[in-house]
Amino acid sequence: MTIRVAVTVNGTEYARDVEPRLLLIHFLRDELGLTGSHWGCDTSNCGSCVVWLDKTPVKACTVLAAMADGHIVRTVEDLERDGRLDPVQQGFIECHGLQCGFCTPGMMMTARWLLDRNPDPAEAEIREVLSGQVCRCTGYENIVRSVRWAAEHAEGTAT
Amino acid sequence: MQVPSHVEYERATSVEHALTLLGRPDHRVLAGGHSLIPMMKLRLAQPGVLVDINGLAELAYITLDDGAGRGGAGGGGQLRIGALARHADLLDSQLAGRHFPIFHDAERVVADPIVRLWGTIGGSLCQADPSEDLSAVFAAVRATAVIRGQDGDRKVPVREFHRGPYETVVGPGELLAEIRVPVTTGTGSAYEKVARRVGDWSVAAAAALLQLDHGTVKQAGIGLTAVGAEHFVAAEAEDFLRGQPATEENFAQAATIAAEHCHPVADQRGPEDYKRHLVAELTTRALRRAAGRASRTAGKTA
Description:
The structure holds two protein chains of two kinds.
Chain A: E1 3-9, E2 12-18, H1 24-31, E3 50-53, E4 56-59, E5 72-74, H2 87-94, H3 104-117, H4 123-129, H5 141-152
Parallel strand pairs in A: 1-5
Antiparallel strand pairs in A: 1-2, 3-4, 3-5
Chain B: E1 8-11, H1 15-22, E2 27-30, H2 36-41, E3 49-52, E4 62-65, E5 78-82, H3 87-92, H4 94-99, H5 101-107, H6 113-116, H7 121-127, H8 133-140, E6 144-149, E7 152-157, E8 162-164, E9 167-168, E10 175-182, E11 187-195, E12 202-213, E13 216-225, H9 235-241, H10 248-261, H11 272-301
Parallel strand pairs in B: 1-3, 2-3
Antiparallel strand pairs in B: 4-5, 5-10, 6-7, 6-10, 8-9, 11-12, 12-13
Helix pairs in contact in B: 9-10, 10-11
């Protein structure tokens, strides 16, 4: 049995007939070809699959594509607009916030959400909000610095 | 790659619609999904049809009935938590935190911030995982579960809500709609947990609510997480404390009783004796903090 899933992803409407058991992360990657969101631990622990569902971050390995039907999804591909990087992306460049890059899409989507709620988060708040996401390279120091960089260079952010 | 096995999907458009769907065989509620979907991936749960209730905004609320017009016994009022309120909602609720700081203690250590945005309060209780934090919390504060069915609501004390691991009294055609917590003056509450790392399940945890009257324990509620306490309650420790002076010695004695009467099992989170040690220490800490908060509350309202 398949069901129709119609969802707006990064401003574009998509509709696909999929199995109800299909997870959102696989819907995004395999059905829509949006491979920026990474499929990591499969157990809602690592956070590399974080996307926004109606403006709220979610681990896309732990939500069914069916649950997103009629809703709005935002993925890492939407951070850059018209060739202009989001300050969070620029921050990860400036502060070397990634090495292998596997966790980066999820880290950046959660960081963008945090900064939209609190444009000037303290280091402790950044660490708390990112505590459900795993980075095996950086030891988190540079990720926290990257988010702080974005907070300090927020001008012109369009979200 | 972990994916659930084949399943069908229905989206409930109203509570009544959900109840109709849930009356059919092999239908199961899908709320936040952050326990159910992982269990489906592991084939620990294999429902035939999922009934998605995420659209039922009428079940997502946290409000206070002040008890006016209902007699207002014992300071009166009750906190009402809709089953579809998210963990993050409870953590963000100043109303809940003001009356029951235990909720904020607990919600800060439930999973991680992203998971807390989706996991629901009702889902936590209905999942009935022995290591889940809110069961002991709601047991400690003597909450009541409001279970809705085709014939109306029935109310079940949270202390009678769980039949056993992963099993509750919610039957076919029923839906947990609300959790009610009685608000009484002079109370303080706290939750203390030890986990191996941030966001993990408890090795052990203790929930405490104390109602004090001039330094004497008028009522005590003690809940235990992940250590095989019947209905998540340390009943013998509660019985000991009731009527006793709220002293450090009595808290330690109650905690020792709690550690003796629970039934932890050795697993990858630690051996049995370590877990009993944690129960004693965490129960003492939770009682101590609850008493401190009760004193401050009494000072404010006296």
